[in-house]
Write a structure and sequence with these properties.
- This protein has 87 residues and is mainly α.
- The protein has one domain.
- The chain is 76% helix and 0% strand.
- The protein has four helices and no strands.
- α1 packs parallel to α3, α1 packs antiparallel against α4 and α3 packs across α4.
- The two termini are 14 Å apart.
């Protein structure tokens, strides 16, 4: 149950980070590229390095909204065994 709250909190942090980036950068193309690169890195981490991050709607939304910031946040929470485990 607490794992869901951590994932929802991470989604909220990624959304705020996306909003701040959009306000300061004002370039949606750069943010789209950032999100795509972060998603490709997320897939590579799971396929090549077997990090064990579960790919679900939360992780996809966090990476899509937060880009590299969201990916780093997911990776840190996974390595700390707080959230995003594969069962």
């Amino acid at each position: 149950m607490a794992k869901q709250y951590v994932e929802l909190g991470t989604l909220l942090v990624a959304f705020v980070a996306f909003w701040l980036l959009f306000v300061f950068i004002q370039n949606p193309i750069a943010l789209l590229i950032n999100s795509l690169i972060a998603f490709i890195i997320l897939l590579a981490l799971n396929m090549i390095f077997k990090v064990g991050i579960s790919i679900n709607i939360f992780t996809i939304l966090i990476v899509a909204i937060g880009g590299m910031i969201g990916l780093v946040l997911i990776l840190l929470l996974r390595l700390a065994n707080v959230a995003f485990h594969t069962e």
